[in-house]
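step: validate -> pass
step: tokenize input -> pass
step: predict -> running
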Amino acid sequence: LPLALQVKNKAPAEVQITAEQLLREAKERELELLPPPPQQKITDVEELNDYKLRKRKTFEDNIRKNRTVISNWIKYAQWEESLKEIQRARSIYERALDVDYRNVTLWLKYAEMEMKNRQVNHARNIWDRAITTLPRVNQFWYKYTYMEEMLGNVAGSRQVFERWMEWQPEEQAWHSYINFELRYKEVDRARSIYERYILFTPLVLVHPDVKNWIKYARFEEKHSYFAHARKVYERAVEFFGEEHMDEHLYVAFAKFEENQKEFERVRVIYKYALDRIPKQDAQNLFKNYTIFEKKFGDRRGIEDIIVSKRRFQYEEEVKANPHNYDAWFDYLRLVESDTDAGTVREVYERAIANVPPIQEKRHWKRYIYLWINYALYEELEAKASKRTRQVYQACLELLPHKKFTFAKMWLLYAQFEIRQKNLPLARRALVSFCKCPKNKLFKGYIELELQLREFDRCRKLYEKFLEFAPENCTSWIKFAELETILGDIDRARAIYELAIGQPRLDMPEVLWKSYIDFEIEQEEYEKTRNLYRRLLQRTQHVKVWISFAQFELSAGREERLPRCRQIYEEANKAMRSCEEKEERVMLLESWRGFEDEFGTDATKERIDKLMPEKIKKRRKLQAEDGSDAGWEEYYDYIFPEDTANQPNLKLLAMAKLWKKQQQESEAAAMDPDKDIDESQT
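step: predict -> pass
step: emit ->
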């Protein structure tokens, strides 16, 4: 094999030639253009026949090479047609149809050739063959009917339409037939076409669209057959039923009635449709209804539209989440304001049927108000006492009393029975709360009996209440106050004694204060002092000492000041061991206030010596994990008794004084001019 030539100089050429330059030069030189053939002029018949022979031979050769290319056949036939050789052109079209009879263009060119040459019967023959061979090609039918109509053969065109309709074509074909009849003022025939082909033929099954019914109705309306148009709309509504409702049908029906000034019928149509069509599919319906009411309605009608729209919104919300009780409340508030009692009851029943799935009180707190509102509606709005009683009883049966209950339901039921003057039933209802007793129920029942002045019942209820909750100080106080009001002081005092003897109380300070106030009101000062002493045996709280001292100040007339000062002395001694220094400071402040008002100079000077010194300290903080969290400043109190007992505090005070003197001497050394000026001064 020959060796490949090696290029020695691989540097680019000095003159670069691009592809664009090559194309431009080829265009300028016209290298690819062939010279036109010479023009030939035919002067006699022999030359003409020779030309025809050569041309036909060319066409036949092209067809022989590829007989499936229909464009070659069409060119051949059109060339023969240009030479007025109609018979030869027919022969060529027939040969082409034998090759491909499904070619639509071939049939169209063939028929157009016959029509151009006024061969009407031949054209009819071709159209008949075309629609018989390819009945689903609508173009053949349109051309055929148009040709017959242009020839004035209306009956023939109608006959072609009838043949076409047997194949159940698309919608446009039916409307073309109807428009054809209307062009010749054949209204009855057009109606018969609608009746035959839209209502009672498979067209409704093939094209079950609302627009076909609307077009039929508008056709009747256009020709002033209003009764027929209304009947068409009614039959359309009946045909589609409630399962396949379409807002466009009802909008068109309502506009038709509006044009006929039948405003009540329009309202009925809109309301019927709005009650049955889902909200998301009725936006256009709402819009048209609102426009209608603004044009022809009153304020009440417009409000009805708004209410209907809001009802749809609430229906969608409660369908999406039946346990959305806030949506139910809004929905019920809407229907209560604008609908009859039957509808309101139906919505309430639907709402209360959505019981919370979990038996936990926090899930029932919103749900229980549905029952309360239902009962209040039946009592106040519907004036149905029997139904109200049934609502309360059904709610109380539904509640899981072994786990929790709602005291407000028992109390509301009892109050309802009292309003109905049925006191035994009210008491029976409140006695039933033993299934799940609660403080609120006891209080409500006792308050009810107090209003009825049944004091013996109140005593029994208080006894049951205190057996159930002996730690409730408020109940003890209320019971004692009841006995006080009734004038039985000994029973009240016995109740207080039982109360303070309980091992566990929720608010003992309130109970003791109430007992002390009770004795003060009865002017039993010795018993009050004994109570204070008993209380101080249990607690050494500073407020108890201050209250005791103030009592002594206000109780006696002659020995009140010495007694009060003695209480303060005892309190100060008792609180020396107290860790809370702020409480001791509070006591001394109260004592100083007493001395400022009633004491002498000696006693005032004595209390001033007892007052502590307030100093600032620092202490180290620790985080939860034990690491250092920095330092914290706080204030501490140094009492004079503590200073005498702790010599370290005296040493600390001397150190602070020495440090202060050192700072002053350093400042004087830094600024000697200041000392000279001071000496001169």
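step: describe -> The longest helix spans residues 647-670.
step: cleanup -> pass
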